[in-house]
Specification:
The complex is a heterodimer of chains A (314) and B (400). Chain A has 314 residues and is mostly helical. Chain A is built from twelve helices and one strand. Chain B is flat, with a radius of gyration of 25 Å. The chains are: A mainly alpha (314), B mainly alpha (400).
C-alpha cells in the first residue's frame, strides 16, 4: 500500500479530515512542487561565487585599478547590503524571527563577506593596525555576532564563531614557544567562552535556537584540543582523563536530549583517544590488529544497545 | 530480488512521512499517535548518526579481522586472492543474515558488511587469477573482469539492499572498463557514456511503475547519477585527469582528441543541461533538477577552457550574478502566479524539513565558505600579499 492508498484508507477510517487528506495527498504527489530549497542553494552559490570573484579580481588587479576605485566599489556594495538589511528588518525580537524577504539572509551574508574582503584590503594596503591584525578578527567577530543576533542569521553566526576562533589562533601565534600546548589552552579557553556564552544567551532567552550551533562547534573544538593533549608524549594523563569526562558528558547529553550527533562524537573521539593510549609503544601488528578487532566488536555491542534503547529515528 | 518486502518499506516510508507531518503541525498529536500504531514495522532502524558510527566500527572490526588473518597466516599472493574471495562471500552472507535474522534496515552494520564484500571481491578478483604473471605495461585483456565483476556485484548489492552508494560504486567501476579494451581516449569516453546511457534507458523504462511508492526516490537518485555520469564522461575538460594543468593553461587536451570528437562533445555539453532540466521539471524530480542545475553550472565553468579562451578573475562574479539573477527571477515569476503556483511549481516552503536542512546547512556552510572563497595571493608583486583566511573569518584572518 503506497502512501496515497494509505491516506485514502485513513480518510475512510476517519483518522484524518477531508481537508487534511486533500492537503497531504497533494503534498505526496508533489502538487505543487516546492523549489524552495533549490532556489536557496542557488542564491547561496551565487553570493559565494560573486564574492570569490570579487576577492580574486581585487587581489589580481588592485594595483592597476587603484586603491580609491577598489575601496569605492567595495564600500558601495557593503553600504548597499547593510542599508538593505537595516531598512527592511522587522523590529528586533529575542525569539526566532523569519527573514522579511527571501533574499534578505543572502544580502546580509554578501555584506558580511564583502566586509571581510574590504578589511583585509585596507590592512594590506595601508597597514592601519600594523602588527595587530588579530584585532581585525576580534572586531569582525563582534560585528558578526551583532548582525547574527540582530537579523537572526545562522550563516553570519557561523562566520562570527569562526572569526573568534581565528582571533584566538592568531593571538597565540604571537607566542613563539610551546605552540602546541598554548594553542590547546587557547582552544579550551575558546570552548569555555563560547560554551558559557551560548548557555547564558540561551538561559536569557536570546535567540535560544542558536544554542545547537554553539554546542556543536564547542564539542568539536574541545574534542580536538583534548585529543591533541592525549597524543602528547609526556603529561598526557590529565588530558586523557579530561577526554573521558568529556566523552561521558557528550554521551549523556546526546542520549538524554536525543541529539545523537553527540553520541557519535563521544564514540569516535573517545575511541581514537583510548586507542592512542592503549597502542602507545605497541608495534606488534598482531597485537594492534587484535586490539582493533576486539574493541571494534565491543564498540558495536555498546552502540547497538544504545541504538536499541534510544536511537530509533524520532 | 529485494531483501525487504514492499510492504515493510512502504510502512517505514509512511512512518517517516507521519513524523514530518506531525512536526510541521499538519497532524495533531492525537492523530499522530493513532496513525503511528498503524505504521509499526518489524524492521530495525536507527538515526543517521548512530548509523554512521555503526558503519565505521563494523568496517574497523571486519578490516581488522581480515588483516589479522593475513598477518598470522601470511599466504602467497594467489592464495590471498582466493582468501579475499572467501571473505567476500562471508561478508555478503553476514550482511544477508543481518537483514533476514536481525531485520536491520539502514543500520550501518549490514551496509558495512555489504561494502566490505564488494571491496574483498575486487581485491580477490585482482589477486587470484592475475597474480604471478610476468610484468607488462599493457594490461591483460581478461583483467577487465575485475572492474566488471565488481560493477555487477555492486549493482546486485544496490538491488538487494537498496543502498544508493552501491550504484555509485558500480558507476565508478565502469569507468575502469574501457581502459582494458582500447587505448583510444575518445573511444573510452564514448564507451563509458554508452554504458551510462544504457543504464539510463533501463531506469527510465522502469520508473513509471514506481511513481509515489517507496522506490520513487531511489530511482530518482539513480537517474540523477546516470545523467551526471554521462555529462562527466562527455565533458572532456572535466573528465580528463590532468585537470589542474589544463585549467591553468599549461597544457591543452584538445590535441589528445580528434577535432570532430572534441567539438561534438562541446556541443553535447551545451545540449545536455537543458535536456536534463527539462526532464527533471517534467517529472517533478528533485534530484534530476539538481543535476540539471549542476551540469548547467559546470558547462559555464568549463566553456572557456573548451574554447581555449583565457580565464578572467571576474568570471566567478559573472557566474554569481547569473545564479543570483536566475534564482530571483524564478522566485518572483512563481510568486506572481495564482496562489504563488505556476505549472505546479511554487517557491514557497511547504515542508518543515526544508527549513531544518537550511538551518543545518547554513551553520556548516558558514564555517566552511570563508576558506573556500579566499583567493590566492597575487604573485606578480612580491610586496603585495592578500588573502589567506586559514583560520576562518571570511578571509580577514589571513596573513596581511
Amino acid at each position: 500500500m503506497n502512501i496515497l492508498a494509505r491516506l485514502e484508507h485513513w480518510k475512510k477510517e476517519g483518522a484524518i479530515s477531508l481537508e487534511q487528506h486533500a492537503f497531504l495527498a497533494s503534498l505526496s504527489r508533489g502538487e505543487p512542487f516546492s523549489l524552495f530549497l533549490e532556489l536557496n542553494v542557488l542564491l547561496y552559490a551565487g553570493v559565494l561565487a560573486f564574492v570569490a570573484g570579487l576577492g580574486w579580481t581585487v587581489t589580481t588587479w588592485s594595483q592597476q585599478i587603484g586603491d580609491v576605485l577598489v575601496l569605492i566599489v567595495l564600500s558601495t556594495i557593503l553600504a548597499g547590503c547593510f542599508w538593505y538589511c537595516f531598512s527592511r528588518a522587522p523590529a528586533w525580537s529575542a525569539a526566532e524571527t523569519a527573514a522579511p524577504s527571501p533574499i534578505f539572509d543572502y544580502v546580509l551574508y554578501l555584506g558580511s563577506l564583502v566586509w571581510c574582503v574590504e578589511l583585509a584590503y585596507l590592512e594590506n594596503r595601508f597597514h592601519v593596525l600594523s602588527g595587530q591584525s588579530d584585532f581585525y578578527l576580534l572586531a569582525t567577530g563582534g560585528l558578526f555576532f551583532f548582525l547574527a543576533y540582530r537579523f537572526d542569521n545562522r550563516l553570519v553566526l557561523s562566520l562570527a564563531l569562526s572569526s573568534l576562533a581565528g582571533w584566538f589562533g592568531l593571538t597565540i601565534s604571537h607566542w613563539p614557544s610551546h605552540q602546541d600546548a598554548a594553542y590547546r589552552q587557547y582552544a579550551l579557553l575558546y570552548c569555555l567562552l563560547v560554551g558559557v556564552g551560548g548557555v547564558l544567551l540561551q538561559r536569557r532567552g536570546l535567540k535560544p535556537h542558536f544554542f545547537g550551533t554553539y554546542l556543536n562547534i564547542v564539542a568539536n573544538v574541545l574534542f580536538w584540543a583534548l585529543l591533541s593533549g592525549v597524543f602528547n608524549r609526556q603529561g598526557y594523563g590529565l588530558w586523557f582523563l579530561a577526554l573521558l569526562i568529556a566523552c561521558g558528558a557528550s554521551l549523556a547529553w546526546g542520549v538524554t536530549r536525543r541529539q545523537f550527533a553527540f553520541v557519535a562524537y563521544a564514540a569516535v573521539y573517545g575511541y581514537v583517544g583510548v586507542s592512542s593510549m592503549f597502542l602507545r609503544g605497541v608495534f606488534d601488528e598482531t597485537v594492534v590488529l587484535s586490539y582493533f578487532v576486539l574493541t571494534g566488536v565491543a564498540m558495536l555491542v555498546v552502540l547497538v544497545q544504545i541504538a536499541r534503547r534510544f536511537g530509533r529515528p524520532a | 530480488m529485494r531483501l525487504y518486502t514492499a510492504s515493510s518499506e512502504e510502512t517505514l516510508r509512511a512512518r517517516k512521512l507521519l513524523t514530518d507531518w506531525a512536526a510541521d503541525g499538519i497532524l495533531t498529536n492525537a492523530q499522530y499517535e493513532r496513525l503511528e500504531q498503524e505504521t509499526i514495522s518489524e524492521l530495525r532502524t536507527t538515526n543517521i548518526f548512530l548509523r554512521l558510527v555503526l558503519f565505521l566500527f563494523t568496517l574497523i572490526s571486519v578490516g581488522g579481522a581480515v588483516a589479522l588473518f593475513f598477518v598470522v597466516s601470511r599466504p602467497s599472493e594467489q592464495t590471498s586472492g582466493v582468501l579475499f574471495l572467501i571473505f567476500a562471500a562471508l561478508c555478503y552472507a553476514a550482511a544477508e543474515l543481518a537483514v533476514s535474522q536481525a531485520r536491520l534496515y539502514r543500520y550501518g552494520i549490514e551496509e558495512a558488511l555489504a561494502v566490505c564484500s564488494v571491496g574483498f571481491l575486487c581485491a580477490g578478483m585482482d589477486l587470484a587469477p592475475f597474480s604471478g604473471r610476468p610484468y607488462s605495461p599493457k594490461p591483460y585483456a581478461a583483467e577487465f573482469l575485475v572492474p566488471a565483476a565488481s560493477a555487477v556485484f555492486s549493482l546486485w548489492i544496490w538491488r538487494r539492499f537498496g543502498l544508493w552508494y552501491a550504484f555509485l560504486a558500480a558507476m565508478i567501476f565502469v569507468v575502469f572498463l574501457p581502459g582494458y579494451w582500447t587505448s583510444s581516449h575518445s573511444a573510452q569516453h564514448v564507451t563509458i557514456a554508452v554504458f551510462y546511457a544504457a543504464g539510463l534507458i533501463c531506469v527510465a523504462a522502469v520508473r513509471p511503475r514506481h511513481h509515489f511508492d517507496y522506490l520513487a526516490d531511489a530511482y530518482s537518485l539513480v537517474e540523477a547519477f546516470l545523467w551526471l555520469g554521462i555529462y562527466l564522461a562527455i565533458n572532456l575538460q572535466l573528465s580528463s585527469l590532468n585537470l589542474r594543468t589544463q585549467w591553468l593553461g599549461i597544457g591543452t587536451i584538445a590535441s589528445e582528441f580528434a577535432r570532430p570528437f572534441y567539438w561534438a562533445t562541446w556541443v553535447l555539453i551545451w545540449c545536455l543541461p537543458p535536456l536534463v532540466l527539462a526532464r527533471g521539471i517534467r517529472q517533478k524530480d528533485r534530484f534530476v533538477i539538481a543535476v540539471g542545475a549542476i551540469v548547467a553550472i559546470l558547462t559555464f565553468v568549463s566553456n572557456k577552457p573548451y574554447l581555449g579562451w583565457p580565464r578572467h578573475t571576474w568570471d566567478p562574479m559573472l557566474l554569481g550574478i547569473l545564479l543570483t539573477g536566475v534564482a530571483l527571477f524564478i522566485r518572483r515569476w512563481l510568486a506572481r502566479g495564482p496562489s504563488g503556483v505556476r505549472y505546479g511549481f511554487t517557491a514557497a516552503r511547504l515542508s518543515g524539513k526544508d527549513k531544518r536542512w537550511m538551518n543545518a546547512g547554513s551553520a556548516v556552510l558558514g564555517l566552511v565558505s570563508p576558506q573556500s572563497i579566499t583567493p590566492a595571493p597575487q604573485t606578480s608583486s612580491p610586496d603585495f600579499r592578500f588573502g589567506g583566511g586559514a583560520s576562518g573569518g571570511g578571509g580577514a584572518s589571513g596573513e596581511f
